[in-house]
Amino acid sequence: MKKQKLNCEIARHISVMEILAGLGHFPIKESEKEAWFLNILRSETQASFKVSKELNRWYDHGAGFGGNIIDLIVRMNHCSVKEALEFLTNDISYFSFHQQAIFRNSVSKIQILKVHEIIHPALIQYLSSRKITLTTARKYCKEVWYEFNGKKYFAIGLQNVKDGWELRNIYFKNSSSPKSYTYLKNSGKQLIALEGMFDLLSLVELDIIDISNCDIIILNSTAFIKSIVGFFKDYHKVYLYLDNDPTGKRISLLLTQNYTHVIDKSSLYKNFKDLNEWLIDGRKI
Q1: pLDDT per residue over 163-191, tens digit each?
Q2: CATH: 3.90.580.10, 3.40.50.300, 3.30.1120.10, 3.30.230.10. Which one for 8-104?
Q3: What tens digit of pLDDT does each residue of 213-269 get?
Q4: Would you identify the CATH topology of the domain 182-280?
Q5: Burial grade of 61 (CB within 10 A; 0-12, 13-18, 19 or more)
Q6: Cα 39 from Cα 49, distance rounded (Å)
Q7: Does the pTM of the predicted model rise above 0.70?
Q8: How far apart are CA 90 and CA 107, in angstroms?
């Protein structure tokens, strides 16, 4: 797939959260409007690095400066703006610039303690709040107990191809190392591509496509598009159910422009951010 070059105006709209997730950085605490991280520019024990989801801007409270995604890449990689744009261009096809050095400095502190069938009442209630039945969740996910910064937590877990886990509960959105995509193979001739575990679970609940005849890839981060596009040639059709946000729309447009058998299905939930919001609103077909 041919890479699309970026200019500063376009690059400023790339999601800071998505880039950080793709590089292995995940928030210590998070709300709808903001997320707090252990500082990615230096070592610390208390989270002082904030990302405003509404403004798509970051701020380092310890150092007293912040900016957009270009400013962040310049500081992280000690590079020029031109090199930062090159990094983000690669991220659209989704990434390699200084990749190894960054990952060495982004080791997850999450330690998996135990994994079993989902049974905890709090997790079952959380699933219910997102209109996911326990039967559906148990088919694809597990209850995962883990230790993070010396404390124990439990979450709904979806395993990826490298045996890392995407971890979700009502309070946290985390991932264990190594982070990667999830690939569910059913020997199908059609492929479904989604962004996250709740997109998968919501698609099952919505029952708008026969999943039993499809293979499924859950990206777990849009940074892994480059890793999965090579599979497209093995399928007659590829259906995209990505988020209705600038990042999801940008990726869907690039893929449909470059692959004639890739179909963007996001118009089904055009008034909602993603499949789960659509499901919660009760807009079943």
Answers
A1: 999 999 887 778 888 889 999 998 889 99
A2: 3.90.580.10
A3: 899 999 998 888 888 999 999 999 999 999 998 888 889 998 999 899 999 999 999
A4: Dna Topoisomerase Vi A Subunit; Chain: A, domain 2 (3.40.1360)
A5: middle
A6: 5
A7: no
A8: 22
